[in-house]
Automatic annotation (TrEMBL), chain A:
PROSITE patterns in the cross-refs: PROKAR_LIPOPROTEIN
Domain Leucine-binding protein intervals: 40-383
PANTHER family, A to Z: LEUCINE-SPECIFIC-BINDING PROTEIN, PERIPLASMIC BINDING PROTEIN OF ABC TRANSPORTER FOR NATURAL AMINO ACIDS
UniProt keyword GTP-binding present: no
UniProt entry keywords in alphabetical sequence: Receptor, Signal
Record bears the keyword ATP-binding: no
Family that this chain belongs to: Belongs to the leucine-binding protein family.
Protein name, per record: Receptor family ligand-binding protein
Native source species: Lactobacillus equicursoris DSM 19284 = JCM 14600 = CIP 110162
Automatic annotation (TrEMBL), chain B:
Organism this protein belongs to: Lactobacillus equicursoris
Similarity field: Belongs to the binding-protein-dependent transport system permease family. LivHM subfamily.
Positions of transmembrane segments: 12-31, 51-78, 90-106, 140-159, 188-211, 226-254, 266-285
Protein name, as recorded: Branched-chain amino acid ABC transporter permease
Topology versus the membrane: Multi-pass membrane protein
Length: 397, 292
């Protein structure tokens, strides 16, 4: 997802955070988690409400607040008792050290049973250690880096979950979409090999597309910041592909689209959510942003009744269409409540168990089943662009 | 065969941008013995000048190009007067480090002023593509070729056939002797920076038109590649810098066409290393003996 680029800077601050978390955890005593003694499901919300990625946090806050409001209209029956959700919303200021101390505060003082957030992988990772010590599970709506739910040695982090799919998962689904929906057999890849995002998507796409029986006619690479793709695209054109897969970000892909269309490459172009920005059409030119598809988490063009209902209540409350981040955060709250409901108990350990065993959970961003690495296996949405506008959405199961 | 000619055209249009930048690099180095690492960032300033004048003052292409050259020329003179002139008698490495500082100042200053967002350049000239027996060439590519050739010819004329040019040449040969002959050194150096930066400004507007995308860090890589082109052609030679620019453009294109797109930048830097080892004077450079 786009904000990975931001984190080169964040990585440096991580170092200092590691030192600071030491004092933040000092109060933590038990590893048994928190249990509700009254009729409140206490959910901590640890989000980037200010700082460099505040726009993500602000959008997710809207989703979380709406979900709590919807649930509290009737309350939810768990183990014979009716519960209501109580949110504890804190700002981690887009800082790794604050994300860690906010997590400790929520777990130890506010006695939350589970945490939603942080939005970005770097800050979400920073809050893991304090929550694990306290035995409280967290669900990040948008930490998409594959290694987020795993320890350094590759084991699954017991208390770490997310409601989004991981980056490479999109590559797999894009292959499926191109082979089964667009019915393309000969595909060229033009990929960004300077980011994990680009290489991860390329790898998973290639594996899946070959498995389905398709052929990759050529794989060309570029670096982020490149501006000239004419020579690469001349090569691609010479191979006569039925479609082109573009794992990368909109800054370069906008130029790829422009130069490809001007060169007369008319076949469909398919990318990942790194392409999903209004800037894409601005850079490519509206005329060139046609017959373009990209995989993403959520689309307002979806016709799923659950989504249309969500959009209606969201619009009534905020007077705008829900963003991807709001819908993922909305699902995160429902996932926690559903997990408690399945286990029949409102406690950290029950929510942890419930999340790990979550199956066919119907959210607004698709049907979610948690795999053994705590990565949701879910449907992916493909948006289709025509003349620079999102014209249609498909769901890839 | 079609593919070959198509790639040739791709390479030449990329190369002409490098050539324009390399020429600026080269004349500045020739006169002040300073590798002006901020050169690529002046090119970025030119692109932003074009962006704002076309969008907000509704300039045409030619007006934007000429005013960008004037504005960048002025920027070059200011940079020289503020950052490099006080260091003219300092060790050369001090001036080099200052050049890197100026480069960072321009990049981050622009990121602060106009944000680091990539912007789409206004398309003042409608793009047309001509088909020459399966090989397509666009009017923008033709404009880039033509502008590059005209500017190069103008530069050669100024340096070889005017009084100012003679002053520049004499300063580049020997500072002290030139100054004893009554040549105003500050004046000659300022004019050189103005000319070099004006070429960079023109390249900025052309590249904005061609790729339709500008950002504050756009000057970094082309700046370094233009430096390689200047070294390849031979520092101190005008035709050398031009040929070096075209060769680097063609080389990059060839590497991509052969399917090694990931190694495009590496190939350019390998050329730099090889040239420095084998032919330190460059293709057209004068063999210089360092006098002790």
């Amino acid at each position: 997802m786009n904000f990975k680029k931001f984190f080169g800077v964040a990585a440096a601050t991580m170092m200092s955070a590691a030192a600071l978390t030491g004092c933040a955890t000092a109060k933590t005593s038990s590893n048994s988690g928190n249990k509700a003694t009254d009729n409140k499901i206490r959910i901590g919300v640890n989000l980037e409400l200010s700082g460099s990625v505040a726009s993500y946090g602000q959008q997710e806050k809207k989703g979380v607040t709406l979900a709590a409001q919807q649930i509290n209209k009737k309350g939810v029956k768990i183990g014979g008792k009716t519960y209501k959700v109580k949110l504890y919303i804190s700002d981690n200021k887009s800082s790794t050290s604050t994300a860690a101390s906010v997590a400790a505060q929520l777990a130890n003082s506010d006695k939350i049973v589970a945490e939603v957030g942080p939005a970005a992988t770097a800050y979400a990772t920073a809050s893991i250690s304090n929550l694990t010590k306290a035995g409280v599970p967290l669900v990040s709506p948008s930490a998409t880096a594959a290694e987020f739910t795993q320890t350094k040695s590759g084991q699954t982090q017991k208390y770490v979950f997310r409601s989004c799919f991981i980056d490479p998962f999109q590559g797999k689904k894009a292959a499926d979409f191109m082979y089964n929906t667009l019915k393309k057999r000969k595909v060229a890849i033009v990929a960004d090999n300077s980011t994990d995002y680009g290489t991860g998507l390329t790898k998973s796409f290639t594996t899946e597309f070959k498995k389905l029986g398709g052929k990759i006619v050529t794989t060309q690479y570029f670096q982020s910041g490149d501006k000239d793709f004419n020579s690469t695209l001349t090569t691609v054109k010479g191979k006569n592909p039925d479609a082109v897969y573009l794992p990368g970000y909109y800054t370069e892909l906008g130029l790829v689209l422009k130069q490809a269309r001007e060169m007369g490459i008319k076949v469909p172009f398919v990318g990942g959510d790194g392409m999903g920005s209004p800037k894409l059409a601005q850079i490519a030119g509206n005329k060139n942003a046609t017959n373009v598809y990209y995989t993403t988490h959520f689309s307002t063009k979806s016709t799923d009744p659950a989504v249309t209902k969500f959009m209606k209540v969201y619009k009534a409350k905020y007077h705008e269409d829900p963003a991807v981040f709001s819908s993922l955060a909305y699902d995160a709250v429902y996932m926690i409540v559903k997990a408690a409901q399945n286990e029949g108990e409102v406690s950290s350990s029950a929510v942890q168990k419930g999340l790990a065993n979550l199956k066919n959970f119907k959210g607004v961003t698709g049907s979610i089943t948690m795999d053994s690495k705590h990565n949701p296996q879910k449907s992916v949405v493909v948006e289709q662009m025509t003349n620079g506008k999102i014209a249609k959405a498909y769901t890839v199961k | 065969m079609h593919t070959f000619f198509q790639q040739l055209i791709n390479g030449l249009s990329l190369g002409s941008i490098y050539a324009l930048l390399a020429l600026g690099y080269m004349i500045v180095y020739g006169i002040s013995k300073l590798l002006n690492f901020a050169h690529g960032d002046v090119y970025m300033l030119g692109a932003y000048w074009g962006y704002y004048t076309i969008n907000y003052l509704h300039f045409g292409f030619l007006a934007a190009l000429i005013t960008a050259m004037l504005a960048c020329g002025l920027a070059g003179v200011i940079i020289e007067a503020v950052a490099y002139r006080p260091l003219r008698n300092a060790p050369r490495v001090a001036a080099l480090i200052t050049a890197i500082g100026v480069s960072y100042f321009l990049e981050n200053g622009m990121s602060y002023l106009v944000t680091s967002d990539t912007r789409n350049f206004p398309q003042v000239i409608k793009r047309k593509t001509f088909d020459l027996g399966g090989v397509s060439i666009s009017n923008i590519q033709l404009i880039i070729f033509a502008t590059t050739i005209v500017l190069m010819a103008a530069l050669v004329y100024i340096i070889n056939h005017t009084k100012t040019g003679r002053a520049m040449r004499s300063v580049s040969t020997d500072y002290d002797a030139a100054s004893l002959m009554g040549i105003n050194i500050n004046h000659a150096v300022s004019i050189t920076f103005a000319l070099g930066s004006a070429l960079a400004g023109a390249a900025g507007v052309l590249i904005g038109m061609y790729y339709n995308s500008i950002d504050p860090l756009m000057g970094m890589t082309p700046g370094i590649k233009a430096f390689v082109a200047a070294v390849l052609g031979g520092i101190g030679s005008i035709p050398g810098a031009a040929v070096g620019g075209f060769l680097i453009g063609l080389l990059e294109t060839a590497v991509q066409a052969l399917g090694f797109s990931a190694f495009r930048d590496a190939a350019v830097y390998i050329v730099l290393i090889v040239i420095l080892l084998v032919l330190p004077g460059g293709l057209f450079g004068k063999k210089q003996v360092e006098k002790v």
